[in-house]
Amino acid sequence: MRVALFRWKAIGPLLLVGVVGVGSWLVFADRIAKATAQAVGTTLVGARVEIDRLHLDLPHGRVELRGLTVASPFEALENLLQADALVADIDPLPLLEKKVVIDRLAATGLRFGTPRLTDGRTGGRSDGVMGQVTRWGEQLQVPALALPTGTINIDRLDPGQLNTPRAAAALAARADSARLTWEAGLRGLDVTATVDTAKHLAERLRGAKATDVRLLGDARRALEQVKRAQERVLGLERSVAAGAAALQGGVAGLADAKQRDYALARGLLKLPGLDAPDIGAALFGPAAVDRFQRALYWVQLGRRYMPPGLLPRATPGPSRARRAGMTVRFPRAHVEPAFLLRTAELSVELGAGGAAPRTYAARLSDVTTDPTLHGRPATASASAPGFRLGAVLDHVRATPRDTVAASLVGVALPPLRLPSLPLRIEPGSGTVALSFALQGDQVRARWTMQSDRVRWVRDSGAAASATGDVIWRVVSAIATLEVSASLTGSLTHPRLGVSSNVDRAIADRLRALLGAELAAAERRVRAQVDSLVDGQVAPVLAQVEALGGDVTGRLGGQRAQLDDARKALEQRLRELTRLPGVRLP
Amino acid sequence: MLVLKLIQSPIKTLHSEGTPGQVAAGIALGSILGLTPLLNLHNAVVFALIVVLNVSFPAAMLGWALFVPVGFLFDPAFDTIGRALLLGTPALRPLWTTLDNAAVAPLTNFNNTVVLGSLVCSLVFWLPLFFAARRGVVRYRATVADRIRHSRLYRAVAASKLYTVYRLFRPEP
Questions:
Q1: What is the torsional sign of CA A126, A127, A133, A135?
Q2: What is the helix (H) or strand (E) element at residue B120, kind and residue range?
Q3: Which of A64, A126, B101, B172 is deepest in the core (most CB within 10 A)?
């Protein structure tokens, strides 16, 4: 029996299913696009992205978003930004290739740092880019300012941590090795036999005749032996001198190691030095690190989602009941990027010092997931009275270069809590500036904050201490605040420097207040180091000293014997050759 | 009752409706729906084939239902295979690059490791599954079908009104 291949009567129902599918798309497209945009945005930012309404108008190539809210990935109850409306003119054809090309985006009513009712952060502090940035910040090691409340306590010094005993043991081993080498060299010289031979021949020459050619030949050979022995002694002397100098270098190294041990022991005082930079780092370091971490977070997000090059890119697949897998993109030269925002014009609302918010214009351009394809760096700029922003994310070439600079004048600065001190600064209205440049792995950043009307608030619940009172008297008289923090080096080994007018004032007062006590504490820890170290260092120093003197003395004695023997031989030979009419063969 | 109605048509199909080849083709096509993540463009094509080709529709639904858990079970393997094809085979990279930058093809999500791995596996095993299913249907009808047909459960299932709807997609002789 022959079976028909097609079931023609099912074409109708199939078309009906197709029509129902298209109808469903028309009804639910906005919701699907909204859910997709929220999910993608949330994944990108690392915090909840919410959209009140999204309308797709594909025939006119337009997408409208109303009520966009992006939660802050850093603060629990704060939004990163809110926008009243975003209208995007999109190119419909690339959508068939699953690419989004936005020719122009207009955003109105952008507000930053608005409060929210629920925590919008989606990832933990240890996840993804946030985790990387958190771990990076932890390596910056801001010193803790522990103000003494009475006597300065010293932690127990662990002898195993000290450098000097290890250096002393190494030096002793080197001295032993040198001693063995030099003694072997001394034995190898065999000076005594040479000297005895020379003396014996000199005696025989005393009564010899100038015609005793054989004796004269023996005397000359003995003289040559003496000269060679002298050269060997000289060579060994040079070697001993060099070795002794190296051992003296080791002795100097012991002194350096001891200094390091003193520094290590000083660290047990749990106080930064009374230098202003240390105090500045202790007071304002956490705030500076927080700013740099935020800048680095956005730059690293840019590098993750806008990587240079055209290699395949794997990202986690869509969330679904089945396994998500990885979705791999394969960029190709001379085609549209997967995402491109050509230009965006933003209307930004900024409040200045509590005044009514004013509207400023900002601009974004060339934001793309494939900078190498697009060939132009992403830029952002905004300029208004008292406000400047510029950013360039250049991922076109293999080594990405990211630069961000922003400054705000007359803006309400957030309060700063000073670590380890029962104090809070309310800077009021002031100027804040941040520049952050990351070229490859090399970072160069600066954060400054200035305010002319600082208000100091003392924690009423904190326990009173003499030092705390002194610091309160110092800082409460300071009306201005100038903080400057810099970050240099590589991302793997960054260096943080912080200075401020406050730390200089505090340093001066602390130095006066604590100088004597700290000096006494330092003397105690130095004595502790000395007691642990000196017993091991002294024998080594004596060993090195004795070794040099002993070998040098023995070499000197042997050289003197050789000199005497040589003089005697040469004297006898000259006397014999001075006889008239006699020519030595 | 609904469950009974849902299983009515596949059971009837196994017993008398359609040739073993039509039933086996339906099961094999349905297996693609079950093995690969459902909401993808290629499954719309597979569904259209199931409807338009003269294969057993209930058998396709049976194949789908049977292979959904298999798909979940083998997802790690599909992921590995897809990863190897997409990232571990440089010779295929020009093909993926062309597809990824062509119209419509990216909408199939072929560049997802699980989608590609499961689709490739379901296509590779399509023919073996077809022949195995055909053999299985023949043996079933020759051995236990009569006993099942006379069972009380079968008669209860066969009496359902869903049979009327089922007739629309019954394989044509």
A1: positive
A2: helix B113-124
A3: B101
User: In whole angstroms, what is the distance from residue A405 CA to residue A388 CA?
Assistant: 8
Helices of type H across B19-112: 20-35, 41-52, 57-86, 93-100
- A259, two tokens: 């200094």
Q: How far apart are CA A414 and CA A427, in angstroms?
A: 7
d(CA A476, CA A455): 8
- A429 close to A448: Cβ distance less than 8 angstroms: no
> Which residue shows structure tokens 């004595």?
A527
CB atoms within 10 A of CB A400: 22
Quote the pTM value. Answer: 0.66
Cβ separation A7–B173 shorter than 8 A: no
Asked if B111 lies within 8 A of A335 by C-beta distance, the reply is no
What is the phi/psi pair of residue A337, to 5°? -70, 165
The answer, yes or no, to whether residue A6 has pLDDT greater than 70, is yes
| Pairwise CB contact (< 8 Å): B103 & A7 | no
Distance from CA of A19 to the nearest CA of B (A): 13
Assess contact for A412 and A351: CB atoms under 8 A: yes
Cβ pair A323:B82 closer than 8 A:
no
- Residue A46 C-alpha, separation from nearest chain B C-alpha, in angstroms: 22
The one-character DSSP state at B96 is: H
- Band (pLDDT 50/70/90 cuts) for residue A541 is confident
- In this structure, the strands spanning A79-90 and A62-71 are antiparallel
**Tokens read off for B99:** 């597809």
Instruction: Please report the ipTM that was assigned to this predicted complex.
Output: 0.82
Q: What distance in Å separates the CA atoms of residue A43 and residue B152, rounded to the nearest whole number? A: 55
A10/B71 touch (CB, cutoff 8 Å), yes or no? no
Provide the H-helix boundaries in A190-275: 191-206, 213-267
Under DSSP, the state recorded for B161 is T
- Checking if the pLDDT of B1 tops 50, the result is no
Sheet with A423-426, edge to edge strand ranges: A416-417, A423-426, A455-458
Yes or no: say if B63 and B55 are a contact pair by the CB < 8 Å rule: no
The distance in angstroms from the start CA to the end CA of chain A is: 134
CA angle A62, A63, A68 (to 5 degrees): 155
Unique residue bearing structure tokens 């946030």: A130
Contact B109 A14 (CB under 8 A): no
What is the distance between the alpha carbons of residues B75 and A384, in angstroms, rounded to a whole number?
55
In this structure, are strands A387-394 and A378-384 parallel, antiparallel, or unpaired?
Answer: antiparallel
**Residue A422 in contact with residue A414, Cβ under 8 Å?**
no
- In A296-315, the residues whose Cβ lies within 8 Å of chain B are 312, 314
The alpha carbon of residue A327 is apart from the nearest alpha carbon of chain B, in Å, by 4
Strand partners, A54: A65
The predicted-structure confidence for A402-436, as pLDDT tens digits, reads as follows 999 999 888 788 888 877 677 888 888 889 999 99
Residue type, B101: N
Burial class of A340 by CB neighbour count within 10 A (0 to 12, 13 to 18, 19+): buried
Structure-derived torsion over alpha carbons of residues B110, B115, B116, B118, reported in degrees to the nearest 10: -160
Each residue of A503-526: pLDDT tens digit? 877 777 766 766 667 777 778 888
Nearest by CB to residue B87, choosing from A1, A324, A328, is: A328
Q: What SS3 class is residue B101?
A: coil
